[in-house]
Amino acid sequence: MKKYKTIALSLLLGFSLAACSDFLEFDPYGLEGSTNFWKTEEDVEKALNAFHEFTYQEGVTGRGFMWFENCSDNMVTGRSQSEAQAIKDFQMTPENGRDQKDNWPWMYRIIARANDVLRNVPDMSISGSVKNRAIGQARFYRGFSYLWLAPWYGDNGVNGGIPIVTEKTPTAEIDQPRPTSVLANYDMIIEDMRAAADLLPYLSEMANEDYGRPHKAACWAFAARAALYASQFDAKYYDTVIEMCDKVMGMTGADKRGLYPDFARLWREENNFCEEYIFSLLGNAVEGPKFHGMSFENGGWGLYNTWGYFQPTLELYNAYEAGDERRDATILYPGDHIRFVGQDVTWAVGSWATSSTSGLTWRKFMSPWENADCIGKKVNSNMNNASNVLGTCLIRYADILLMKAEALIWKNGEGDSEAKSLLNQIRKRAGLPENSQATKVQLKNERRCELAFEFQPSRHLDLVRWHDAQEAYAKPLHGVKTTTNPDGSFNVQEVEIWPARTFNPNVNHVFPIPAKEVANSKNLKQNVY
Fold it and tell me: In 231-352, which ranges are continuous DSSP H helix?
């Protein structure tokens, strides 16, 4: 934490986002040593734009924590890498070099920037509306950053939470020890999101060029998620989950949220801000999140260099009920067709043979790569970048329904009538009978199928907080092997692709903090691993 003293004092170091008409444009500017900053509304805009710098860091919004999510039974590592295998097999060390290590310093950098806004903006001579917006966004991004880290590194046991630094923390004390429980983090996140919601506008009140910035519904939604994660340690947080979800569900008029009617078409650029939208990270063909290009076929048959890192398991494919429209919208099975850079691809067959570990791949986020002219228009022309025009969804309305349904079932018992109604809304959109009985098993499977491979939330975190991880990970994972016959027909064979693993719920529920962060601090205690 010592290295964040300089950041907290000077606001920004290195590259940040310039104040411009598009806050997603990436232009460098430096403020270190400036004696004239925090004087004008333009200065405030620069500070708010700087919150978005993390969105184009590959280790944060590319692979990043997907190495941790890759531990789940939904996916396997698509390429041979020893450190990636060590993470998936729960043998990770703090010195692990995968880019998950980038998240801790980047989130604390955002926390420092938020604290700078909260420290300086209240006393500035600027309009009240700009001041409220700045304070609201700072509270949002501070809570957002803690929520990004806390579930992976904090617990209510031997390790505790992660260090809390606020605008009131003296510079000499910024190297804070860990709180005794991660509940301290979740309480702070909920408090920040509540305060932010009081100050930020509704989405309908925002100019189009500000879409992608936080708003009231996003604050309530992330507060609900923090409370859901906290509820594994204390059931009283279910009330907060319900309260926050009700705020999102209760919006009316132009702000009313709902399920987009066609799940398969939800994942298209034109629906980045449809009725299901709550909060996403945005990019374009120049820069932005790289998450969507991480999987599919490694090398993309020479058409485009998708990276092939994470591939779906047959266990996930089989989790979908017969007739569930989400399955084929999420996963490509051998023989399925997709358009890729203008070509009609028959997945895993003939010249489109795959190197995928599982023989399956993700379809869900591949729409930017459909057309022959997509390169440089919809996706980055640098095939080692993979930024694209599809918003990287972090939370959407379906998740609100699922979070509230879970809270109702765990609080009131299985068969809760409102939980049935919420789950049946999800099922109806999926093309399934509206016959949910609102059992815990059904809720868990609906979350698995609805939210598969989304950047957030996490199947792995769900299994951990439900205390299901040990049993789930004790089973091997499967995929398929496809062989094409001379006449063009093909055969598909089920194969084991990953052996059973040992998950120790007393240790493996969190991951080791990057060794560099512990070495840079006098007070930061490493997780037991």
Answer: 237-249, 263-266, 314-319, 325-330
